[in-house]
Amino acid sequence: MTRSTFLNDLRIAECRTAATALLRKYYIETPEAIDVETIAWLRGKLSVKTGGVSGAEGRLVATPEHGGVIRVAPTSNQGRRRFTIAHEIGHFVLHQRSAIDRTTLRKDFTVWTTATEEAEANYFAAELLMPEYMIRKRCVGIPSIQLLDSLAAEFRTSLLATAFQYWDYSKEPVALILSEGHDMQSFRPFKGGWPRIRFGEIHEHSAAGERLAGKAADSGKMVPTPAYAWLEGYDRSDKDIMEDSVYLEYYDRTITLLWVDKPL
Ligand SMILES: [Zn+2]
């Protein structure tokens, strides 16, 4: 992948600023007050309807002048429903230049690092549902998937989106990897670029690798993992870092949170 195909930090910031501007405009100060259906209506005369997406997760049919409809797949999962609506508001705000009819597939929600409109809509949606001014102060304590789960529950959104927000707003040295089978797909590096992630295949000695091999279940918490399994330059080291990996059946992806809990 060439450098230019990554979504750059400036564009990510623009997408987030557009989301925050909406929340500020409507004086939204708490997670409970983030009502995406009301925001959709106020911002673009977009009404939300369930169904009519034929296999997709969401669909936006609208014009800039007259508004339109956001359709969402029927689901009992409130977090996913809210994220889908927020994602479609993102397309309306960021990408609508004329009449639009676009669908969003499940795999689009796993796109976070390539320079695509899907990744942009995901960043917009994540910030709309978990804005920095609410979530930063909650990103404290020992990093873990369990912490991400509790944040996702409080903000009523998806674990995947929460993980990307957490990576940005936590002060802990954490990295995030999204993998499909053994292929590492998206990642957010350790801040400052060090230590460097060994991008490519999931290593068999990592917790994620042991799960893929059927030797272990989800780690369930932060567990020690060999540094060489995840990092460049540690091939002859016996040092450990910490890892928490969970398989998300809905997306058929494994999400891994890495944490350097002591100096390497
Ligand atoms: Zn989309």
Keyword list:
single chain; 264 residues; alpha+beta; Arc Repressor Mutant, subunit A; Beta-Lactamase; five-stranded antiparallel sheet; four-stranded mixed sheet; 9 helices; 9 strands; 35% helix; elongated; binds zinc ion
Please give the structural blueprint.
Blueprint: H1 9-25, H2 36-44, E1 46-50, E2 58-63, E3 67-72, H3 78-95, E4 100-104, H4 117-129, H5 132-135, H6 145-155, H7 159-169, E5 174-180, E6 183-188, H8 207-212, E7 223-226, H9 227-230, E8 240-248, E9 253-259
Parallel strand pairs: 1-3
Antiparallel strand pairs: 2-3, 2-4, 5-6, 5-9, 7-8, 8-9
Helix pairs in contact: 1-4, 2-3, 3-4, 4-7, 6-7
Zinc ion (ZN) binds at residues 87, 91, 104, 108, 118, 121.
Walk me through what this model shows.
The chain has 264 residues and is an alpha+beta fold. The protein folds into two domains: 3-135, Arc Repressor Mutant, subunit A; 173-259, Beta-Lactamase (2-Layer Sandwich), CATH 3.30.450. The protein has helices at 9-25, 36-44, 78-95, 117-129, 132-135, 145-155, 159-169, 207-212, 227-230; strands spanning 46-50, 58-63, 67-72, 100-104, 174-180, 183-188, 223-226, 240-248, 253-259. A five-stranded antiparallel beta sheet has the order 6-5-9-8-7. A four-stranded mixed beta sheet has the order 1-3-2-4. The longest helix has 18 residues, at 78-95. Zinc ion is lined by residues 87, 91, 104, 108, 118, 121.
